[in-house]
Amino acid sequence: MAVVTDISATRRWVMLALGVFAQSASAVIVNGMPFLLPALTDRGMPLATAGLLVAMPAVGLCCMLIAWGYAVDRIGERAVLVAGPLVMCAAGVAAATVSNYVALGALLFLAGMGAASTNGASGRVIVGWFPPDRRGLAMGIRQTAQPLGVAVGALTIPAVAATHGFSAAILVPAAMAGLAAVGCAIGIVDPPRPGGAGNARPANPYRGDATLWRIHGVSVLLVIPQATVWTFGLLWLHRDVGLPLGVAGALVTATQILGAGGRIGVGVWSDRIGSRLRPLRTVAVAAVVSMAGLAAAAGLHWWWAALPLLVVASVITVADNGLAFTAVAEIAGPYWSGRGLGIQNTGQNLASAAIAPAFGAVITAAGFPVAYALAAVIAAAAVPLVPIAPSARAAAEPVAPPEHQGVLDN
Question: Using 50, 70 and 90 to split pLDDT, how confident is the model at 377?
Fold first, then answer.
């Protein structure tokens, strides 16, 4: 069977754009549902019930990340990037037609299951088609999909719900998912994989080598300060610092934009120095320093220092995502990276989900400075876990097309 061995640079960037759009649609359905809370509570639903309902897409996502990764490894990226968004679209349209809250929750759960498809598949397309010296940049751009999706959700869902009703608001991510499915069906090409029918598939990269497990552990630890700042930053600015909600919201929005730029910046940095893991270690150290500084400034009520440190910490604590994601895909290789990326995202999502209740209890008992200090301590545990060298398997199994073979010296 003939396979495509190369594509034009323009086609690569088109596929990157499609991957970003598909991932943004997933972010809207998963991270944008909380923007429906005002509409749900205005209809008389208790806040606890509404909170559970809007969390269902995130639950569905966590349940399917590894399964979709397995599908990517077995049937390819294009099929997954079409099937998953189609599930999102169908579930979203169905959710807009029901009035029973149990049925609505089940359909939102199904939409989240579909949303899980884009995480690994879009990353694999990038690693498969972009040469090593452009992957960091490309993956950094891809990692902006989440803040873009959150921004789209914040701008559209509350306004549509207020103007046209709750059901119409759910159609926003459903329509995006439908467009993503069509676009990916037309524009995505599965990247080639080394080896032919006569060659055995590579061995499990998780056996006999702790490199991938260490990267997963680092990412879980580093997502805790990230989620702490994202979850409680607005509340801290309003309650402790005393900023009006509008000003605090604008500051948090600005940190999201800067964070997106930071992800691209560290990706370019990793391309230039030929390593993903050395920048990852530096980012981990910077996360410790910035969170510790924020804890000290907040504890001393030095707002002149605490506000800039919040911005710095917000940018630094999201910078590791693209580096670790790219490293996992490169080291796992073309026959295992789908599952590897699924494991990577599952760990991060589960850790993020635990932040609101766990750190909420810490803040209630001891205050924001203690919570920030605890996040710094957890980030410090990640620093020695960052691997120093790649596995031998990573160096032996390139994932790019033949003319771009080679994995960066991580």
Answer: very high
